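A reminder from the course coordinator: this example appears on the midterm review sheet, so study it carefully.

Given structure:
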């Protein structure tokens, strides 16, 4: 398995978190945007150690992935770091298994979760989400497929997903049940391995969040293509403890980024220009 993954990456370059020395991960022209502390926003939260620790699960490009030096980068890292700066805090990402991030917030091991979380009603029962983007589910297929995959009629297909993401829980698993099991699901720990399964033909299609799918297609050197429309649009959010100080403080910091234009600039550096918001929200409720 490891040999096949490395061979596939060698043929297509960088898909997401696995990198080569010849292809930098940071987009061309990227620059770190670090706003100054805003005292009235910093006063909204009391963080004892002065560090905003964020659980994250790279690779989930372009949201979080590792650069050629092993540092966690990505559009969510840039956003969260800028928000922490406004709050007068340092920012430290903590790599974790995706399924362990929310329990780690509950257990107090980390402050927040920044890992491409879709804000759902089920998750809101135990967490608040500082919303920063709307995205949907988008499928992709190998360009070698003889026939186009239809996401709405996928019986008989093999579909790759990242484990525990909405693509698995809300998209392909219900479709597999509707197909009476005649839909094979290949679940992977990372989005890049799911993309590689489709790229190498092990899966007929990839189901992932639309920015993730678009990123994989753009990095595949023509070996993957988008198929079907974006569906089930929903808000992305950074997860914080329920009713904690972090929610209002981070939302205020995000609104500051929106007002100054830094928010749009950060997302544009990673090729994200659709689904942007103009008002910071917690659980899809505007803060003002």
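Designed residues:
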């Amino acid at each position: 398995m490891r040999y096949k993954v490395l061979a596939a990456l060698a043929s297509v370059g960088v898909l997401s978190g696995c990198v080569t020395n010849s292809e930098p991960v940071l987009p061309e022209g990227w620059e770190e945007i670090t706003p100054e502390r805003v005292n009235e926003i910093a006063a909204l939260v009391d963080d004892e150690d002065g560090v905003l620790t964020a659980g994250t699960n790279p690779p989930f490009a372009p949201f979080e992935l590792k650069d050629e030096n092993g540092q966690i980068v990505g559009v969510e890292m840039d956003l969260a770091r800028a928000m922490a700066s406004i709050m007068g805090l340092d920012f430290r990402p903590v790599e974790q298994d995706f399924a362990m991030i929310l329990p780690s917030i509950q257990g107090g091991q980390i402050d927040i979760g920044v890992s491409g979380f879709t804000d759902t009603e089920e998750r809101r029962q135990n967490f608040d989400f500082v919303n920063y983007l709307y995205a949907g589910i988008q499928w992709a297929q190998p360009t070698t497929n003889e026939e186009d995959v239809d996401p709405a009629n996928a019986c008989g297909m093999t579909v790759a997903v990242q484990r525990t993401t909405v693509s698995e829980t809300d998209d392909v698993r219900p479709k597999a049940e509707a197909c009476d099991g005649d839909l094979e699901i290949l679940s992977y720990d990372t989005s890049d391995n799911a993309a590689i399964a489709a790229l190498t033909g092990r899966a007929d299609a990839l189901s992932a969040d639309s920015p993730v799918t678009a990123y994989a297609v753009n990095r595949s050197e023509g070996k993957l293509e988008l198929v079907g429309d974006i569906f089930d649009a929903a808000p992305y959010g950074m997860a914080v403890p329920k009713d904690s100080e972090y929610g209002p403080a981070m939302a205020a910091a995000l609104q500051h980024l929106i007002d100054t234009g830094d928010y749009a600039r950060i997302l544009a550096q990673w090729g994200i220009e659709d689904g942007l918001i103009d008002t910071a929200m917690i659980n899809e409720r505007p803060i003002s």
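DSSP finds ten helices and twelve strands in the chain. The CA atoms of residues 166 and 175 lie 13 Å apart.
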